[in-house]
Design goal:
This protein is mainly α. The protein folds into 2 domains: 6-49, no CATH class; 67-218, no CATH class. The chain is built from 11 helices and 3 strands; from the N terminus they run ααααβαααβααβαα. It has helices at residues 6-17, 26-34, 40-49, 67-77, 97-104, 113-126, 128-131, 144-148, 154-167, 195-201, 205-218; strands spanning 82-86, 138-143, 173-178. Strands 1-2-3 form a 3-stranded parallel beta sheet. α2 packs antiparallel against α3. The longest helix has 14 residues, at 113-126. The radius of gyration is 23 Å and the shape is elongated.
Amino acid sequence: MVTWPYPRLVSQHRTTESGLRAISAERPRTLACNCDCTDGKYIDALAEMAEPSETGWWERYRGSLPQGLLDISETEANATRLRGANTVHVPGLLQTSEHAMAIFRAVVPQLPEHEVALRLAHRSERQKVITGDNPAPYVAVIHEAALRMQFGRRDATQAQLEYLLEVSEWDNVTLLVLPFSHGAFPGAGQTVAQLDLLEDLALFRQRSRDFIRQIAQQL
C-alpha cells in the first residue's frame, strides 16, 4: 500500500509559513525544483533569505529560559522604537536588579534560585536596548499602582523610584505616570490596553517626575 505524502507536505509547509520551523538555504531550491521554477536569480534570492542571520545574545539562554522571554528579547533587539504600559510593576527595561529579583521570586510555582539568577542576567542584557551605544527611543506609561507596589525591602523600592527619576532624564526615554486620581482608563479590565489612550491620560514628563519624587519621599 502506497501512502500519498501530500498531507504531510502541507503540514510541513504550514509550520514553516507560521514561523514554527526554520528552513535551510537548500529548502527553497528544492521547493523551486518541485514547482518547476527556473528563475535562477529569484531562487538565489530566496536561498539567501534563508541563510541564518547573526546569532542574537538571547540564544545563549535557549533551553534554559522559556521561549517567550527569548521572543521578547529578539523583538526588542530588532525594534526601531519601543512603547509599553505597566499597571502592577515597573517595566522590565526599567527595573533595578533587586526589584526584578523580588518579582521573579513571586512567580508561581516558585522558581529555583539558579533560574532566578538566569532571569536576572537575561533581564540585564535586555535593558541594553535602551542603555547601549545605540539606544532605541522608549515610551513607558506606568500606573501609580506600579510605583507604590513594594517589591522587596523598603530601600529597594526607594532605589527603584530613584532609578526611574534618573532614566526619565535620558533623551531616549519618555516616562509618563498615570495617577489613581485619573480614575478608570481604557482597557483597565483587559490584558492589553490601547497605549495611545493611556498616554493621553498620563501626566506630562516633568509632572510625572515630580509625582515619582513625591512617592519616593513618602516611603
